[in-house]
């Protein structure tokens, strides 16, 4: 295990779920954290908690990764001590609805495409050139089992995560010959706010996604992310698919009888 103490880690979508779990996991390593999210009140609360608990340095940023001009402005305005980002966690992402394509909401499609694909690209384009110039860096893209296997009602979301998979592969090719590493983490069912977001705040419907099964937790994924970043420089963990023991494929989940 290689120490990443004092390295600068930037996590998008850090106010909840896998992003917040990654923030906590990296805080324990002694890394310095740039945490971004749209919900700044939750982000500030998380930052204060981690600073007090782990005595680490944290720079919270209100940021909507879908807004290219905002991404450019905010990242270029980072104070000098925070500009040399060593590790980028492209975590911000979401799913909306479970409609068939011919019945789907165009607004939902645009939100998924803007966040899951364009937001990832904006962050990557702004931060990776510095990594190449400095001769060090690591990009972690949070994908999904949905990027490997489509399922009914999820065509557009699955397409965005398939794009993350292809972009990760292409980015590795583009960075060949540099020390900059690219890893893709593809979780299966993880109990976070994901389903609440998908169902536009329908808490009861969201709960049913995880009923009678044991899903992954956000901490499970954060542990995998930290593992990737703490390998020796010559080791690039290219891709990891992480499923709950109760899941065999995107739509195959074992549920226990009550």
UniProtKB/TrEMBL annotation:
It comes from the Bacteria. Keywords: Oxidoreductase. SUPFAM superfamilies: NAD(P)-binding Rossmann-fold domains. GO terms for molecular function: oxidoreductase activity, acting on the CH-OH group of donors, NAD or NADP as acceptor. InterPro entries: NAD(P)-bd_dom_sf, SDR_fam. The keyword Oxidoreductase applies. Gene3D superfamilies: NAD(P)-binding Rossmann-like Domain. Pfam families: adh_short. Belongs to the short-chain dehydrogenases/reductases (SDR) family. PANTHER family: ALCOHOL DEHYDROGENASE. This is SDR family oxidoreductase.
């Amino acid at each position: 295990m290689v120490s990443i103490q004092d390295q600068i880690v930037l996590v998008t979508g850090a106010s909840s779920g896998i992003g917040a779990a990654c923030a906590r996991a990296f805080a324990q390593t002694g890394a310095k954290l740039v945490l971004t999210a749209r919900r700044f009140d939750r982000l500030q609360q998380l930052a204060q908690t981690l600073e007090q608990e782990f005595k680490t340095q944290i720079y919270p940023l209100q940021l909507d990764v879908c807004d290219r001009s905002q991404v450019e402005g905010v990242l270029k305005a980072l104070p000098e001590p925070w500009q040399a980002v060593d590790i980028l966690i492209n975590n911000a992402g979401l799913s909306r609805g479970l409609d068939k394509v011919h019945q789907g909401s165009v607004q939902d499609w645009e939100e998924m495409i803007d966040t899951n694909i364009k937001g990832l690209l904006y962050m990557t384009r702004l931060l990776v050139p510095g990594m190449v110039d400095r001769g060090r860096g690591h990009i972690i893209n949070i994908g999904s089992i949905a990027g490997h296997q489509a399922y009914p009602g999820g065509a557009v979301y699955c397409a965005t995560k398939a794009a993350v998979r292809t972009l990760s592969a292409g980015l590795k090719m583009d960075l060949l010959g540099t020390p900059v590493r690219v890893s893709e983490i593809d979780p299966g069912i993880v109990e976070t706010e994901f389903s609440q977001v998908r169902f536009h705040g329908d808490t009861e419907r969201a709960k049913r996604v995880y009923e009678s099964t044991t899903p992954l937790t956000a901490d499970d994924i954060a542990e995998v992310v930290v593992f990737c970043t703490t390998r020796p420089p010559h080791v690039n963990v290219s891709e990891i698919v992480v499923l709950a023991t109760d899941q065999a494929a995107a739509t195959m989940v074992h549920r226990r009888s009550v």
